[in-house]
Amino acid sequence: MRLALGVSALVIGAAVAGGVAFGHLAQADDMTTFSITSPAKEPITIDLGEPGRSVGDLRLINIPFTGDEGIAGTLNGMLVTVDVPDGEDTQLDTMGQLIFDFGGTDSIIVAAESKMVPEGDVLMLDGQQVRAVLGGTGKFVGARGQMLTGQNPDGTWEATFQLMD
């Protein structure tokens, strides 16, 4: 009986603590939000798998960005192809890491999963994507939150960071 009560208290305590933690995430006024834009630029693709688009291919990214209130920097990253379109599946899936360098010691690190649709030789982002902010350096040390990414028809990129305060 004591063991059951102890386990119940532990579960209730965890639920209450979890509720407090998740309640904090829902508060939009505890969030810093800003946006950046990058020009259309094809990444460097290294064909590491089977010839042509295939699992294992590496895409290297080095693109400048500008944003709200004079923000500027460089996006560096790498994406690895983990799934290619086949049958009714029209998406090419990649995973990787993106580093947004704002200059000096200021950077944000993002885990990236991308779902892309091949259009000839070009890969277009399949709708808006949500990616996890893993951390940062300098004024972004301890950063956590998410980044919403979209690609415009002209190939330019837009990203909105939502960082927890």
Q: Report on the biggest sheet.
A: 8 strands, antiparallel, barrel
Tally of helical segments:
1
Poorly predicted regions are 1-27
Shape: elongated
Q: Can you tell me the CATH superfamily?
A: Allene oxide cyclase-like
- Fraction in helix: 10-25%
Determine the mean pLDDT: 81
Overall radius of gyration = 20 Å
Distance between the termini: 43 Å
- CATH class division: Mainly Beta
Strand content: over 45%
Structural class, from helix and strand content? mainly beta
Total beta strand runs: 10
Number of domains: 1
Q: Give me the CATH fold name.
A: AOC barrel-like
Q: What does the oligomeric state look like here?
A: single chain
| Sheet with the most strands: spatial strand order | 1-3-4-5-6-8-9-10
Summarize the structure.
The protein is mostly beta strands. It contains one helix and ten strands. 15% of the residues lie in helices and 51% in strands.
Structural description of this entry:
This protein is mostly beta strands and 165 residues long. It has a single domain, classed as Allene oxide cyclase-like (AOC barrel-like, Beta Barrel). It is 15% helix and 51% strand. It contains 1 helix and 10 strands. It is elongated. The N and C termini lie far apart (43 Å).
Question: What is the strand and helix layout of this fold?
Answer:
Blueprint: H1 2-25, E1 31-38, E2 44-46, E3 58-67, E4 72-83, E5 92-101, E6 107-119, E7 122-125, E8 129-137, E9 145-151, E10 157-164
Antiparallel strand pairs: 1-3, 1-10, 2-3, 3-4, 4-5, 5-6, 6-7, 6-8, 8-9, 9-10
